[in-house]
Every structure is written in structure tokens, then in C-alpha cells.
Amino acid sequence: MEDIEFLVKQVLDTENYTIHENTEALIKLTKHNDPRIAELLIQALSNTDPKVRVKAIWALREIPDARAINPLIACLEDSNPKVRGCAVSVLASLRIEAAIEPILRKLADTEREVRFSTLWALNTFQIKDARAVEPLIQVLEDTDDKIGGTTYQAIDALVAISDLRAVEPLISVVNREKIFENLPVRRKAVQGLGELQDARAVPILIKTLSDWSGEGQRVFGFEEVGGWPSMCDYAAHALEKIGTKEALEAVQQWRSTPYPNGGLRLS
């Protein structure tokens, strides 16, 4: 019979074992129903080496144990951002109700990588909790977000929750300065407003029908569909989804006008 303590050591030791050996040892551990495994992994959450703590967190995802819940939640306040981000991902993947609010607090973490990990986890594991709305709205004002990554992810999470408190903040994103760096999140916000289908968005979307920015440009987060449509294309589709008389009339008028520079429409 394999030595449980030796296998746990193999899982956690990144200095003397390869990633392949770490993984093989973890697979072997998952085949054992031995309470000592979780005990040893929980002990490792207090190791002085953050790499060991990270390994232990990931291992507890594959070998879940109720005794690990509170220690994992405690890892959300670890001094190392990689440990905090890892704890967020694992707790979210396990869908532990007691961890939801502590996870949401990580949307305001001092480190951008932890904020991004939290957003990624909310979207990947489809945690659609109304308690996330206000923290997500705050993320939209993330001044440390230089490429739109956290803002982009926050918009996805807000739209998935489908809470109309997101409408006004998304309108504010659409209203951001028309510079290239803002283009991806402005497009994403327009799409989000279309998904939420709230009439409050109609005026800004009609205004955006005259915004040709983005034509012919590849930008972060945009999937190529035979061209790179402009902001106005996205606005038109959002207005059609909202479907009010005012929205549909505006789109009809927009479609009857020539498209400059030979650009491509989405439809």
C-alpha cells in the first residue's frame, strides 16, 4: 500500500518533483479514502512557503473535505496574492455557500491579479449572486485597469446576474472618452445594455449609432466575424434587443443611411 504521507509530500514539493510527478501523486491520492490526506493538506495551508500553500489549495479542490472549508476561506486573507487568488478559484469551483461573501470581498482586493482572479471565477463557475452587483459596479471604476480586463470581466458578470442596477453604470462606461484604449469596454457595455433590455439605455444607444469608432480595428475581446464592426453596429443590435418603438425606429433610420468607408455591418 502506498504511503499517504509520501504522496502528499510529492504533491506539495515543487523543488524536488516535476509538475508531472506532482500531478501523478495527486491522482493517486484521489483514489484513497483516507482522512489523513485532508488533514495533511490542511496543515500545509500554514506552510511558510506560498508555493506549498498554493499546491495544497489546488489539491483540496480534488480531495474536498468539509474540514477544509474554514481554512480555505482563511486563505482569502493570505499575505500572498497568488494564494488569495488560488483560494478564490477553488472555493468558487466548489460552490461553497459560506464562501460567497468572503469571495466577493476580494473584488476590492489591493492586488489587481486577485481582483481579476475573482472576476474570472465568478464568470467561469457562473456564480450569479445578487450580492455581487454592488462590488462589481465598483470594479467598473477600477483606475488600475489599464487594458480593460477587469472592467470587461465585470460587465460579463453583471450581465449574467441580470440585475437592472447595472444599467446606469454600464451607460457610464459607454460614455467614456472615445479613445482606442476604451473601445473594448465601451463595446462590451453596449452589448450588456442590449442583454439587459432596459429602456433607460435607449437614448445613449441611439447616440452611439453615430459612433463609427473601431471600424477596421482588432481589439481585445472581440471575436472576428468577417470584419471589425464599429460601435454603431453594436448599438443597433442592442437597440433591436430592447425593442421599444423609439429604439426600432432609430435603427431603421440608421440602416437607411450610407455606411462610410465601405465598412461591414454585423447584419
Task: Tell me what the structure shows.
- 58% of the residues lie in helices and 0% in strands.
- It is an all-alpha fold.
- Helix 1 (4-12) runs antiparallel to helix 2 (19-30).
- The termini are far apart.
- 37% of the residues are buried.
- Residues 218-226 have low confidence and may be disordered.
Give a nutshell description of this structure.
The protein is mostly helical and 267 residues long.
Q: Overall pLDDT, averaged?
A: 89
Shape: elongated
Number of helical segments with 4 or more residues? 15
Portion in strands: under 5%
Q: Please report the distance between the alpha carbons of the first and last residues.
A: 64 Å
The description of the largest β-sheet is:
none
Considering the protein shown, what is the CATH homologous superfamily of one domain? Leucine-rich Repeat Variant
**Percentage of residues assigned to helices:** 55-70%
Second CATH tier, the architecture of one domain: Alpha Horseshoe
Could you say what the CATH topology of one domain is called? Leucine-rich Repeat Variant
How many strands?
Answer: 0
